[in-house]
Amino acid sequence: MSAPPDGPAAGGEDALVLPPGLVLHLVRHGRPLVDPSREPATWGLDPEHTDGVRALRASGALPLGARWVSSQEPKARETAALLTGSPVVADADLGEQARPAGWLDDYAVRIHRSLVVQHAPAAPGWETAESTRERVVAAVRRHVEEARREGDIDLVLVGHGTAWTLLVAALTGKPVDLYAWERLQLPDTCALTREGLVRRWGTWRG
To answer: I need a labelling partner for 62 at 20 to 30 A (CA). Which of 53, 115, 124, 185 fits?
Structure first.
């Protein structure tokens, strides 16, 4: 299931092309400790549900010797710390679509609306998907260029589901894949090269 966005998520000025030879690994954080009284950007990992992150590390899906960058949000930084002993750079611009504290029973419907109608907030106080996409694509472009200059062949970015869904559309030149967003796990990973997706979300579990 996919739907074309109303903005240029699949191309246009913010299109992003990976350099030859670079593999970009996207990681969605592990299960957070949900607290509706606080903004989601402040949530950390649920300490009782880190087995999934440890399983991802043990799976061998993520490369050794890669350049690592994380969203600055606690759940992403904590996920990265469990996945690697390598240095991890934190970048606030890789954060998830900003949303206020509170609980919405129709959360998934709101996300769908946001991903399809990208210029408008899907709920009061939500960052638009258009803004999220532009911010994340610009940040990834910086980190890709640094990796290229340093000769790195693997770049691992640890972040968030909606942000990565928008980024994959920008990287592949395809419409936002709502079905892929629905199936995202906590944690999850995919990998892309200049040619497109080389490992899809969820397949790291075998």
So the answer is: 115
Pick out the chain residues at pLDDT < 70. 1-14
Sheet holding 154-159: strands in order across? 88-91, 67-71, 154-159, 23-28, 188-193, 196-199
- In degrees, to the nearest 5, what angle opens at C-alpha 194 toward C-alphas 83 and 111? 65
Asked if the bond preceding 124 is cis, omega within 30° of 0, the reply is no
pLDDT in tens, 182-196: 999 999 999 999 999
Q: Determine the 3-state secondary structure of 192 from DSSP.
A: strand
Read off φ and ψ for residue 24, nearest 5 degrees.
-100, 120
Contact 193, 24 (CB under 8 A): yes
Structure-block tokens of residue 4: 């074309």
24 token code pair: 């970009």
pTM more than 0.90: yes
Tokens, residue 188: 């999850």
d(CA 102, CA 100): 6
How far CA 15 is from CA of 10, 28, 168, 174, 206, in Å, comes to: 7, 22, 10, 11, 31
